[in-house]
Amino acid sequence: MSVHEASTPRKTKSLPEPARVVAPDARIARPPPPVKITRAEELRRQLADEIVRGTLRPGAALDETEIAQRFKVSRTPVREALRQLVANGLVESRPHHGAVVAQPSFERLTGMFEAMSELEAMCASFAAERMTPLERRTLETIHEELRMLSSQGNPERFHDVNEHFHNAIYAGAHNDYIAEITLATRVRVQPFRRAQFRNLGRLAKSHAEHDQVVIAILRGDRDGAASAMRHHIDLVRDEYEIYAVSL
Fold this sequence. Notes:
Blueprint: H1 3-7, H2 25-28, H3 39-53, E1 61-62, H4 64-71, H5 75-88, E2 91-94, E3 98-101, H6 106-130, H7 133-152, H8 155-172, H9 176-195, H10 202-219, H11 222-246
């Protein structure tokens, strides 16, 4: 080897700098935008409220034409709203008799809430173990928006963001099948869950219950998350019963 070769520093191939990736946290972790409600969904909510409040009694006929005239809409969103109410179990579709109000029995409703409690507890347990850092930050952001809404006393918006809160936990469980079953059960119970937000002070209580769930999930405490969520859903059922008695 020549002196020149020995004295010449060997060039090393430098590795390319990793591309700078803009963290999506700021975009994803922002509070969810207001949910755009379709006319059919708005009708479903109004009719569900009337059924839960007892304004529309069990066995009452739900005529598409009359409802369309009452709400000044076409029959298309009415038909879709009734279809959703049938899926919720609040309405029955009887051959040759059309749609009628079908209030579930106390035993049936209790069973629905019991299933909801266990399914949600399972999702919270898995979420405590499996949520990614980004999913945890997103959950915290939604939880913070619910805190602000509870202080503002906005039950309609609280209900919508509350859906995002529970959906975030279902997604964080990273089990699509359990998430699918849980969501389907929640759809059946949703009108009764929504009704309890009318109780005085319920928004603040609900947020405090969520707080225990969030704390356990962020700590990775599976048992604590399941227990806190089970307790939350049990209280939701109790609050609905308080609301129903007050009607």
